[in-house]
Backbone:
């Protein structure tokens, strides 16, 4: 019996049905891209043969984190315009910069830089939404990351889609290019929002997603005044507008979901729609607070997202877990709100469910795809370690020591093996010099 | 002309009066514990001699961060009891654990572990408040950290002070032991709070602090119901209670300051009292939101604090800057509230002023004590780097590469030089095994 990778003497945190139970001195064995076996070291009578054996002492091994919402290419605009009013930020900084600088080369290199940042932070799967998404999917493929990559749909001229009349066809071509081609890349549809897409576009985009059996992302209820900005409103609130358009189902991922009334929450729960919450971005842009604890109580499947780097400005899901928990508590004036184990679930198992990948990833179990990360526990800031709750309240993406995606070791002892990250940094710095005030 | 340490080719962020202006290719020279010179490399006709020369390429050098409020020894209780109601947390977990486990040996090792964590995160000076503070001060001294170390004062039996009648005398003995003895250690008085100390104790503690010319710390207005729990209230609110007791002045550091009405805020501003804000702890315990932007606007000198590890659970002032900014924005529904440069000031220059050390630290300037840190900029998560605002919204304490305190290199290329951190971790893990459910 021989494996591709064997991790020994690690603390295993399988998650999913196991909650935050750990196996303290455990092993995990990987073969052909999948988890073949795991359990206590004591169960091994002899140490199995493996192509690569990783000494897991002083580490915790858990499922890779699932970032359910990102605009990876926006690393180029990281910190370009902070501390601004939303409309000033969008109309005077982000939209003009996107119009000038977004092209396939930019999307490729900036998405690859994002992939390096995410892999280093223990993110093994991303739900990404942007334009020129073909280049983003190529970057994720080349970077060794798993991705649900969604091509944008908007009723305005967009990067790569100058004529909005072509937007559905452009998404269809993107799906043609990627469906069933690369096991780690799932193509999808990203309908920007109900205030930038009219009913016809939203319905056509969802019809295409249904026809192809792929996920459908849409920004929803991010701003308090979104109801006033809907294009051809079919109902009183953005959520009921989407409900009236018939697009809410278990393959629709509603991003943000801040401004929801009681009826909206019931609709999301009843429809089975997934929610991607981005607390860091929502705090920084002062958008508001997603009612995460309440949605969770209603049984809505919730994942966490970093959003893009222009509004966050970091791609660290450990930080998002911490922000999500702390924000819920202070907002509800209740320290028991949204306890740490719920966040660990949202960042892994539930996140996988949000992206339609629950059968494959989001847990450590025999048969699952081998997406897992090793956290370095031998450091002052994670000592003592009474329980995995500490991963929410004290760990950082920088504590990730090694990362395996689809059975391939892509980060080992903090060295990125999958590709040349220095090249990605140099390319993005060169682009940033053109963008303006910065670049090194 | 020879220096002890010379940093070359670094991006300098001097702060203080310079705001967030940088010197892009700069040098910084240190002699006899102080900054001797700094400026653009171009000003150096020849490279000066130095005992240690640090190649600063791809780094940013800034003043060390000032953590204005901590209970360092509480690393032992890090993550011991999360997601609990405040009174359950205090009375069923923290107080019983403190009664059993707090002794000089525990305080020494757990404070030393905290020192390792803080130095690694770029904190070069801490305002620490606990009991057995003598052991904490010894730990900070041995760790190479700068500290304002305050011995606790409370009207209940406390670790090391079983008889509250002895509490003032115990603080006086602590001040005797440390005043003027160690240049990096400033002793101080920590009066726990107006709900655990009666007027006589508060006044006597402040009188002692005034007599010795040392800082006086007190928790203030942390909980919404604190007014109802005051011992012998002299006025309607905790702030006016302290004002009536005559203890508010520029050497009093009020910690938390969440529940302040208009009159309270005016009192704090007029008295010149300093404020130590701890957003991470306040969010996790759901205590509320310190009106930081408003206090800042009124000219109150504000610093940031991590609080102790039992309520946070991490000692990372980069995380506190991010939390403070984001929490103000989402709470005020205003993304322009408390912009990044204000946070950088609070974590350095203003923090130094809070601790009474503004003449010595908190900025890079000739003559200042040489407390400075080098941030590793050559990483995906800090690329591109348009401005130092990114330090607030994207950097982590884990991005600190090297640390100099009082002219001594204590962390170099992420290796802790000042002491054996593995020993501190092992000691604390051993203590944690006794504490209960955990330890490795």
Residues:
């Amino acid at each position: 019996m021989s494996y591709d990778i064997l991790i020994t003497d690690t603390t295993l945190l399988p998650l999913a049905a196991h909650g935050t139970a750990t196996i303290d001195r455990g092993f995990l064995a990987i073969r052909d891209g999948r988890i073949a076996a795991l359990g206590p070291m004591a169960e091994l009578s002899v140490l199995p043969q493996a192509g690569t054996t990783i000494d897991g002492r002083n580490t915790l091994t858990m499922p890779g984190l699932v970032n359910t919402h990102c605009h990876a290419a926006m690393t180029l605009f990281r910190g370009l315009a902070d501390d601004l009013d939303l409309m000033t930020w969008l109309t005077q900084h982000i939209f003009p910069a996107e119009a000038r600088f977004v092209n396939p080369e930019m999307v490729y290199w900036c998405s690859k830089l994002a992939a390096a940042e995410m892999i280093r932070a223990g993110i093994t799967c991303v739900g990404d939404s942007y334009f020129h998404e073909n280049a983003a999917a190529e970057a994720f493929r080349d970077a060794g990351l798993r991705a649900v990559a969604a091509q944008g749909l908007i009723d305005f001229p967009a990067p790569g889609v100058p004529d909005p009349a072509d937007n559905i066809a452009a998404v269809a071509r993107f799906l043609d290019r990627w469906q069933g081609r690369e096991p780690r890349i799932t193509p999808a549809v990203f309908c920007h929002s109900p205030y930038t897409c009219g009913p016809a576009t939203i319905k056509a985009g969802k019809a295409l997603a249904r026809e192809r059996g792929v996920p459908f992302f849409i920004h929803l209820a991010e701003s308090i005044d979104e109801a006033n900005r809907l294009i051809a409103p079919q109902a009183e609130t953005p959520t009921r507008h989407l409900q009236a358009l018939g697009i809410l189902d278990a393959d629709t991922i509603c991003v943000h979901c801040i401004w929801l009334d009681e009826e909206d929450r019931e609709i999301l729960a009843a429809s089975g729609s997934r929610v991607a919450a981005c607390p860091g971005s929502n705090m920084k842009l002062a958008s508001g607070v997603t009612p995460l604890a309440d949605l969770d109580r209603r049984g809505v499947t919730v994942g966490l997202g970093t959003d893009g780097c222009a509004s966050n400005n970091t791609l660290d899901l450990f930080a998002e877990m911490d922000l999500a928990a702390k924000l819920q508590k202070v907002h509800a004036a209740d320290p028991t709100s949204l306890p740490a184990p719920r966040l660990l679930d949202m960042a892994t198992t539930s996140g996988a469910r949000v992206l339609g990948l629950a059968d494959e990833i989001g847990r450590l179990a025999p048969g699952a795809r081998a997406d897992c990360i090793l956290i370095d526990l031998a450091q002052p800031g994670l000592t003592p370690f009474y329980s995995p709750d500490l991963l929410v309240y004290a760990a950082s993406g920088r504590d990730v020591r090694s990362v395996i995606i689809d059975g391939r070791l892509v980060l080992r002892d903090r060295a990125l093996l999958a590709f040349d990250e220095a090249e990605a940094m140099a390319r993005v710095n060169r682009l940033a010099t053109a963008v303006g005030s910065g670049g090194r």
About this structure: DSSP finds 15 helices and 17 strands in chain A. Chain A has two domains: 2-63+360-416, 65-354. Chain A touches chain B through 80 residues (CB under 8 Å).
